[in-house]
Specification:
Chain lengths: 122, 165
């Protein structure tokens, strides 16, 4: 049982590594932003506002696809790229929630203590 | 962002294709993650009209009658399920009519299964926004990203994110 848990944990960490590596590059974040604005785009559409060779854009899309952040699907002769938000959701659920909860409560505490002080001074 | 008409969601789950198939088709599983709900898919023959009935907690909140209906278009266990899909819980969404939903289940290396959900909401912008999770802040749930994260948690850990399993 402990062994199983460890395997699942390591699997999860490896997945996260690929996602964080994929997100660590500005061109790849730009590609994700483009798909967020309008999903289901062709390579030709995606490369338009990037000063980069078609091959360069393809390499970045491959990294995003390997990390599970982009999925592709054939529509006739075209290959369309879709943003897959599920891995980001999983990272969010596993990591971010944990930290933001604490930060939010710290901010709430700060607000309370500041309000207490202002009450004292007025 | 206005939600795209066709959306594709993908998740890798440490489970067999058969387990994933059961988790997306059998009511004792579908009711344990995401929005919940109890599908009546019959024998899944193409052409079968199906409904998804509300979960116990939805009934307790006053939901009456099926929450989703549609028709089975294609079923190839444990690989592929294609269906039409109409949300009935809201008059506006219901009026947008039938959307098209596909599940593709593919085995990967290392005991991992890849599940891809493709939801075509062409001419159904309200449904497209809902499945994209745009109503999450107002309590409409996080759409497919949320449902699939929850499904992954349930199959891998035995507990769904909402902790009711």
């Amino acid at each position: 049982m402990t062994g199983d848990y460890l395997v699942t944990y390591l699997q999860a960490v490896e997945d996260d590594d690929a996602i964080f590596r994929a997100l660590a590059d500005p061109t790849r974040r730009h590609l994700l932003d483009q798909l967020f604005r309008r999903d289901g785009r062709t390579l030709t559409e995606l490369e338009q506002d990037l000063e980069m060779t078609r091959f360069g854009v393809m390499k970045h899309l491959k990294v995003l696809e390997d990390a599970g952040l982009v999925t592709t699907r054939k529509a006739g002769r075209e290959k369309l790229h879709f943003l897959n938000p599920v891995p980001i959701r999983l990272v969010h659920d596993r990591w971010i929630d944990k930290f933001t909860e604490r930060r939010v409560s710290a901010l709430a505490d700060l607000k309370h203590s500041l309000e207490d002080e202002s009450e004292e001074t007025t | 962002m206005s939600a795209a008409p066709t959306q594709v969601y993908r998740v890798w789950i440490k489970a067999t294709p058969e387990q994933v198939w059961v988790a997306v088709t059998a009511p004792e599983w579908t009711d344990r993650y995401g929005y919940g709900g109890l599908p009546e898919y019959g024998d899944l023959t193409p052409g079968t009209e199906y409904v998804i009935n509300p979960s116990e907690s939805m009934v307790a909140m006053g939901v009456e009658g099926p929450i989703i209906d549609g028709e089975i278009l294609e079923a190839d266990p444990p690989k592929r399920l294609v269906q039409t899909w109409r949300m009935l819980m809201d008059d506006g969404l219901r009026a947008e009519g039938f959307t098209r939903l596909s599940y593709d289940i593919e085995p990967q290396e290392g005991g991992v299964t890849r599940l891809t959900v493709t939801h075509d909401c062409t001419h159904a912008p309200g449904n497209a926004a809902m499945i994209a999770g745009e109503g999450e802040e107002s309590g409409a749930g996080g759409g497919w990203a949320w449902v699939l994260s929850d499904l992954k948690s349930l199959l891998e850990t035995g507990t769904a994110l909402r902790g009711t399993a």
